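Tip: read the tokens left to right.
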């Protein structure tokens, strides 16, 4: 999953970025509204974490522009402003959730997970596809009783596909979801390698990652892949 953090407080941004990267998220950091707009224009995000008190433009304006451009990405507001009227105003502008500073990192992560689930119409934090059980809170996956030994990138790829089960995910989407700019990966070969390793690890289960020629991949079970 790829997140955008819009926050001008460097130490806070640093703490948030490190915590979320630790949990397997790819995260881009914008220090002001202008940078946020540029990131949003070129990347697909699973969640945008948006501070309100930015040095150039109010975060609410970033939100307004984002919604005006027709993007549905979930937006989690990070704010020091506790007034109820302010929360109501932001929710009505199209924010999806709200955390008040000081931020508890575990709560922040839980809200991010919840927003990702909600944006895909999923209620249960354990994703079940055939025999595959993917625990998005505990960060582990099982096929039947067998735990899958996955690298954090493989787990992130599997989760990205699993929340979009039976739908087509492009290699470009996976590339954006799995690799940050600093990873220096600019080719879909890296994605193909991750998928190939995942397929090997899923062998023997009825869970498969189908290649949709010219389009990308789709995760599902043997049965629903044969249509
Ligand atoms: Ca701020």
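Filled-in amino acids:
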């Amino acid at each position: 999953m790829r997140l955008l953090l819009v926050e001008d407080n460097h130490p806070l941004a640093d703490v948030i970025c490190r915590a979320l990267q630790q949990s397997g998220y790819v995260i881009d950091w914008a220090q002001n509204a202008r940078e946020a707009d540029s990131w949003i224009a070129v990347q697909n995000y699973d969640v945008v974490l948006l501070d309100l008190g930015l040095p150039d433009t109010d975060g609410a304006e970033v939100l307004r522009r984002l919604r005006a451009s027709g993007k549905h990405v979930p937006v989690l507001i990070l704010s020091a402003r506790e007034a109820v009227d302010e929360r109501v105003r932001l929710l009505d502008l199209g924010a999806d959730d709200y955390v008040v500073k000081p931020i508890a990192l575990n709560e922040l992560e839980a809200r991010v997970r919840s927003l990702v689930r909600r944006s895909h119409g999923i209620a249960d934090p354990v994703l079940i596809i055939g025999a595959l059980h993917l625990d998005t809170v505990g960060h582990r996956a099982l096929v039947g009783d067998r735990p899958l030994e996955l690298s954090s990138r493989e787990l992130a790829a599997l989760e990205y596909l699993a929340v979009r089960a039976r739908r087509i995910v492009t290699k470009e989407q996976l590339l954006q979801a799995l690799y940050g700019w600093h990873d220096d990966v600019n080719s879909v070969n890296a994605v193909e390698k991750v998928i190939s390793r995942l397929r090997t690890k899923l062998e023997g289960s009825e869970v498969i990652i189908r290649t949709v020629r010219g389009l990308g991949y789709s995760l599902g079970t043997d049965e629903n892949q044969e249509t």
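The chain has two domains: 2-119, 126-220. The mean pLDDT is 93.
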